[in-house]
C-alpha cells in the first residue's frame, strides 16, 4: 500500500524508475481506489516497464498476459489439460474396470463413474492461465495486460466481465472468487480505440516522451558510467530529432540503447561521423535516417560552436599569432 | 466545490470530451484521496478520471487552466499591475495598504464590502465577489465575441460598480484634503486606479469565459467548414489545413476498418483442420476448428488527371489513398494529362508531400499539355493492362473534358472486364456532365461506380466504399 504520492515516487526511484508527478498521482489513486490503470502512449516510453516497477515497488508478483489478435478465453483464463486426462485414463484403465465391476447395465455403470468424475475435473488437471492465476493468487499481485488494443472486441467484453467482479465460474469446479483483488495495468499502443465500457472502468494515464531534464536523469540512472557531457549531448540530439516529422519517433528506450552503444565505443563526445554511424540504433527507417542526418549535422556543429566559444574566449592571443 | 466540478464536467462535454456519469463519481473519490491542496494534484486526478482518450488530453489541459485558475489569475495579475504602476515592491505596497486602512478608520469611513476588498487587496474576497457576480449576470451563457460588452455591463451592475465609484471618489477627496504629503498622494493615486482595475478584471473574466466555450467548438466548426469546401476554391492557408484534415480523416478511416476487419467470419466445420489439431489427443476432437473466411486486402490502381482544372482534387485524392496504404495489399498510381506515367516509385522513395509535389510539378509527364483522355487510356492499355487482376479496384479521377479528342472508351470496357470494379470520380458538378467537351456520358456506361468528388466529405465516402467493397 502506498502512503502518499511522494511515497510512490520514492519507491519507484528505488526500483530505478524515474516518474513524474502525474504518473505517481495516477498510481496512487489506482492503488487506493482499486481501479485498473489504462496506460497509453507511443511505443518504448515505459508503459510495460511501469507495471514491472509497480510490482517491484509493492513487493508483489507480476502476472503478465500478452494480448494478440485471436486471443480467446481459453488462452487467457484456463484450459483443461486434455492430454493429461487421457493419459491418466489410459493408465488407470484397470482401476476403472474395478470400479464399475459388478454393475448391472450401462446406466448403473455410468452413475458409478459419474460419482467419481470430480477426480478428472479437479484442480489437478486445470492449467491456469494468467487471469486465473491472478485471481487465485495467495498473495496480492499486479496483473499486466499488455497491448490490449491488439485483442479483439469479444475478448474485451470478456475481460470487462472478469475485471468487474474478479470471480470466475468454472462449471465443474464452481465459482472461484479472488482472495486478493490484483492491481491491474492495461497498456495500449493506440492501434485502435478501446470500447467505452472498458475505458470507463479504468483510470487513464497518458505517458508522453520525457522532457529534457527527465531524459537526462533517466540516462544517468540507467547507464552507469556515462560521461555527463555525453549524456547532455545525446539528450540534445534526441530532443532535436523528435521535433522532426518522422515515421517512427525515437522514444526513451532508443535513447538508452544509443547511450549504451556510445559507452561501449568509449566515446566522450559526439561528432558528425560518429552520429552518422550510430544513427541506426535510434532510427529504424531509411527515410527517417536521412532526414535526421541533415538535422543532426547542424545540431552537432552548433553544439560544438557553443562548447568552443568559452574556450576561444580564453585564448585570443594564440589565434592572433596563427 | 461539487457544483463547480459538475460545471467543469459540463464544460468538457461541451467541448467534445466524452465524460459519463460514472466517471464523474470516480472523480469525487479521487479528489477525496488527493486533497484539494495542490492544483497540479487536482489536475492530474481529474485527468485520470475524466479523460479517457489520448486525443482529449490537450483540450482538457487548456480547459482546466482556463476554468480553475481563471478568476484567481485575473485578480493576481491586477495586483501585479497596480504594484508596477505605483512602482512599489510588495512590502512597501503592503505598508501603504495598512496606512490606508488606518486613515479610513481615523476618518470614520466605512466602505462597502467590495470597496474594502479592493482597497485592502483582499484577493480571496475579491475572487468570491467576482465569481458571485459572474453567476448572477449569467456570464457562462456567453457565446459570441460581440456579446462581451453586454455581459461586462451585466457584471458591473451585479457588482454595483456605480456605488463603488462614488465611494472611491469620496475617499480620494478625503485624501486630498488639506496638505497632502507624498504618502497621501501615493494613496490617492492608488485609490484612483482601483476603479479602472476593477473594470479591467471584469473585462478579462468575461473574455476568459468566452475562450472556454471556444476551445473545442472552434476546431470542430472549422473542420466541418473545411470538409464542405470545394477543392477548387482553396486558398494557400486552406490547402495546408486540408492536408492535415486528410491525414486525420485517413487515420479515422483506418481505425474504423481495423475494427470491422477483426470480426472474422466463422465458416463451416473444417474436418481436416480439426483432425490435424487434435492428433495430440489421439484424434478425440477436443478442439473444434472452423474455416475462417479470409479477407483479401484489395489492390488499388489509381489514375489521376493532373491537368490544371483538376490538380487540387487529384492531389488530395492521392494523399488520401497513400495515407491508407496499409489497408491495401498494393497501391499503384498513375498520373496523366495527354500521356500517362506511373508515380508509384515516387511514393516509395519519398515522403508523401514531396512525392506529390514532384509528381504534379511535371517531372513525370508533360503537365502543360491539353487533356486527352483517349490517348492516355490507350497508352495505359498498351503498357499496364496486364497488371490488373480480379482483385484490383481501378479508380479514375478526372473531369472527362477531352478537348474534342477521340474518347477511346473501349479501353474502359476492357479494364472493367478484368478488374474487380471500376470507379470514376468526377470533380465537376453533376449538372455539367456531358456538356461541351465532357465525355462523361460516353465513359459512364463502362464504370461500376460514378461519383461526384468535389470536397472532403465526398472523398471520404468514396474511399470508405472503396475499402469496404
Count of helical segments of chain B?
20
**How much of the sequence of chain A is in beta strands?**
5-15%
* Order of helix and strand elements from N to C terminus of chain A: HHEHEHEHHHEHEHEEEHEHHHHHH
Low-confidence stretches of chain B: none
Name the average pLDDT of chain B.
80
Topology-level CATH name of the largest domain in chain A = Rossmann fold
User: Could you name the CATH class of the largest domain in chain A?
Assistant: Alpha Beta
Percent of residues in helices of chain B comes to: 55-70%
How helix-rich are the residues of chain A, as a percent range?
40-55%
Largest sheet of chain A: 5 strands, parallel
Question: Secondary structure elements and their pairing?
Answer:
The complex is a heterodimer of chains A (about 325) and B (about 475).
Chain A: H1 5-14, H2 21-33, E1 37-40, H3 47-58, E2 61-66, H4 73-76, E3 78-80, H5 82-91, H6 93-99, H7 105-114, E4 126-128, H8 130-136, E5 141-146, H9 153-165, E6 167-170, E7 174-177, E8 183-188, H10 196-201, E9 203-206, H11 212-222, H12 228-242, H13 252-264, H14 272-278, H15 286-314, H16 316-321
Parallel strand pairs in A: 1-8, 1-9, 2-5, 5-8
Antiparallel strand pairs in A: 3-4, 6-7
Helix pairs in contact in A: 1-2, 1-3, 11-12, 11-13, 12-15
Chain B: H1 2-14, H2 21-34, H3 39-50, H4 57-68, H5 70-86, H6 90-107, H7 113-120, H8 123-137, H9 148-159, H10 161-176, H11 182-228, H12 236-262, E1 266-269, H13 271-277, E2 290-292, E3 299-305, H14 311-323, E4 330-336, E5 340-342, H15 344-349, H16 352-361, H17 373-384, E6 392-397, H18 410-418, E7 421-426, H19 440-443, E8 449-452, H20 456-468
Parallel strand pairs in B: 3-4, 3-6, 6-7, 7-8
Antiparallel strand pairs in B: 1-2, 4-5
Helix pairs in contact in B: 2-3, 4-11, 5-8, 5-11, 8-9, 9-11, 10-11, 12-14, 12-20, 14-16
Amino acid at each position: 500500500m502506498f502512503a502518499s504520492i511522494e511515497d510512490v515516487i520514492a519507491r519507484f526511484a528505488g526500483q530505478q524508475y524515474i516518474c513524474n508527478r502525474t504518473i505517481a498521482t495516477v498510481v496512487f489513486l489506482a492503488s487506493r481506489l482499486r481501479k485498473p490503470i489504462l496506460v497509453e502512449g507511443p511505443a518504448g516510453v515505459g508503459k510495460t516497464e511501469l507495471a514491472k516497477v509497480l510490482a517491484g515497488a509493492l513487493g508483489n508478483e507480476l502476472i503478465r498476459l500478452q494480448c494478440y489478435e485471436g486471443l480467446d478465453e481459453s488462452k487467457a483464463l484456463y484450459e483443461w489439460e486434455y492430454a493429461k486426462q487421457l493419459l491418466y485414463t489410459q493408465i488407470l484403465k484397470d482401476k476403472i474396470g474395478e470400479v464399475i465391476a459388478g454393475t448391472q447395465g450401462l446406466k448403473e455403470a455410468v452413475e458409478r463413474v459419474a460419482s467419481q468424475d470430480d477426480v478428472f475435473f479437479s484442480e489437478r488437471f486445470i492449467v491456469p492461465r494468467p487471469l486465473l492465476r491472478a485471481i487465485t493468487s495467495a498473495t496480492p499481485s499486479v496483473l499486466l495486460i499488455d497491448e490490449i488494443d491488439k485483442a479483439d472486441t469479444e475478448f474485451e467484453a470478456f475481460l470487462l466481465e472478469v475485471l468487474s467482479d474478479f470471480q470466475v465460474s468454472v462449471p465443474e469446479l464452481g465459482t472461484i472468487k479472488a482472495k486478493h483483488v490484483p492491481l491491474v495495468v492495461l497498456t495500449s499502443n493506440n492501434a485502435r480505440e478501446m470500447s467505452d465500457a472498458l475505458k470507463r472502468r479504468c483510470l487513464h494515464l497518458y505517458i508522453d516522451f520525457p522532457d529534457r531534464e527527465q531524459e537526462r536523469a533517466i540516462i544517468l540512472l540507467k547507464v552507469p558510467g556515462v560521461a555527463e557531457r555525453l549524456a547532455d549531448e545525446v539528450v540534445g540530439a534526441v530532443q532535436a530529432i523528435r521535433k522532426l516529422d518522422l515515421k517512427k519517433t525515437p522514444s526513451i528506450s532508443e535513447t538508452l540503447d544509443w547511450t549504451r552503444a556510445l559507452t561501449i565505443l568509449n566515446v566522450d563526445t559526439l561528432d558528425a561521423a560518429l552520429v552518422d554511424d550510430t544513427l541506426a540504433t535510434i532510427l529504424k527507417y531509411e527515410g527517417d535516417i536521412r532526414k535526421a542526418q541533415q538535422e543532426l549535422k547542424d545540431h552537432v556543429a552548433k553544439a560544438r560552436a557553443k562548447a568552443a566559444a568559452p574556450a576561444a574566449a580564453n585564448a585570443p592571443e594564440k589565434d592572433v599569432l596563427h | 466545490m461539487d457544483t463547480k466540478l459538475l460545471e467543469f464536467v459540463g464544460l468538457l462535454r461541451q467541448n467534445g470530451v466524452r465524460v459519463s456519469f460514472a466517471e464523474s463519481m470516480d472523480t469525487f473519490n479521487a479528489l477525496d484521496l488527493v486533497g484539494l491542496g495542490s492544483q497540479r494534484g487536482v489536475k492530474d486526478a481529474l485527468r485520470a478520471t475524466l479523460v479517457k482518450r489520448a486525443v482529449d488530453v490537450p483540450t482538457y489541459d487548456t480547459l482546466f487552466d482556463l476554468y480553475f485558475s481563471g478568476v484567481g489569475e485575473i485578480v493576481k495579475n491586477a495586483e501585479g499591475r497596480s504594484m508596477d504602476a505605483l512602482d512599489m515592491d510588495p512590502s512597501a505596497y503592503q505598508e501603504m495598504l495598512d496606512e490606508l486602512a488606518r486613515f479610513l478608520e481615523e476618518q470614520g469611513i466605512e466602505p462597502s464590502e467590495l470597496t474594502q476588498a479592493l482597497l485592502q487587496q483582499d484577493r480571496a474576497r475579491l475572487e468570491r465577489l467576482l465569481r458571485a457576480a459572474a453567476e448572477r449576470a449569467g456570464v457562462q451563457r456567453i457565446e459570441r465575441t460581440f456579446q462581451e460588452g453586454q455581459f461586462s455591463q451585466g457584471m458591473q451592475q451585479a457588482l454595483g460598480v456605480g456605488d463603488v465609484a462614488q465611494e472611491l471618489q469620496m475617499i480620494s477627496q478625503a485624501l486630498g484634503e488639506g496638505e497632502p504629503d507624498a504618502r497621501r498622494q501615493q494613496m490617492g493615486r492608488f485609490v484612483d486606479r482601483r476603479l479602472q482595475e476593477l473594470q479591467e478584471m471584469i473585462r478579462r473574466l468575461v473574455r476568459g469565459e468566452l475562450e472556454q466555450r471556444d476551445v473545442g467548438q472552434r476546431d470542430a466548426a472549422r473542420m466541418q467548414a473545411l470538409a464542405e469546401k470545394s477543392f477548387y476554391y482553396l486558398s494557400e492557408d486552406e490547402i495546408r489545413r486540408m492536408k492535415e484534415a486528410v491525414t486525420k480523416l485517413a487515420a479515422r478511416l483506418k481505425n474504423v476498418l481495423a475494427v470491422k476487419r477483426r470480426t472474422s467470419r466463422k465458416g463451416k466445420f473444417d474436418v481436416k483442420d480439426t483432425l490435424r489439431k487434435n492428433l495430440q489427443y489421439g484424434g478425440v476432437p477436443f478442439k473444434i476448428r472452423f474455416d475462417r473466411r479470409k479477407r483479401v486486402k484489395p489492390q488499388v490502381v489509381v489514375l489521376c488527371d493532373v491537368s490544371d482544372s483538376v490538380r487540387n482534387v487529384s492531389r488530395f485524392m492521392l494523399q488520401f489513398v497513400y495515407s491508407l496504404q496499409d489497408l491495401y495489399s498494393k497501391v499503384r498510381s498513375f498520373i496523366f494529362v495527354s500521356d500517362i506515367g506511373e508515380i508509384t516509385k515516387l511514393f516509395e522513395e519519398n515522403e508523401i508531400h514531396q512525392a506529390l509535389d514532384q509528381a504534379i510539378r511535371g517531372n513525370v509527364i508533360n503537365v502543360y499539355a491539353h487533356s486527352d483522355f483517349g490517348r492516355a487510356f490507350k497508352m495505359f492499355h498498351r503498357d499496364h493492362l496486364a497488371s490488373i487482376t480480379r482483385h484490383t479496384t481501378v479508380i479514375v479521377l478526372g473531369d472527362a473534358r477531352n478537348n474534342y479528342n477521340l474518347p477511346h472508351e473501349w479501353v474502359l470496357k476492357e479494364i472493367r472486364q478484368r478488374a474487380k470494379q471500376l470507379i470514376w470520380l468526377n470533380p465537376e458538378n453533376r449538372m455539367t456532365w456531358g456538356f461541351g467537351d465532357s465525355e462523361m456520358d460516353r465513359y459512364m456506361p463502362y464504370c461500376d461506380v460514378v461519383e461526384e468528388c468535389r470536397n472532403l466529405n465526398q472523398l471520404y465516402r468514396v474511399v470508405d466504399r472503396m475499402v469496404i467493397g
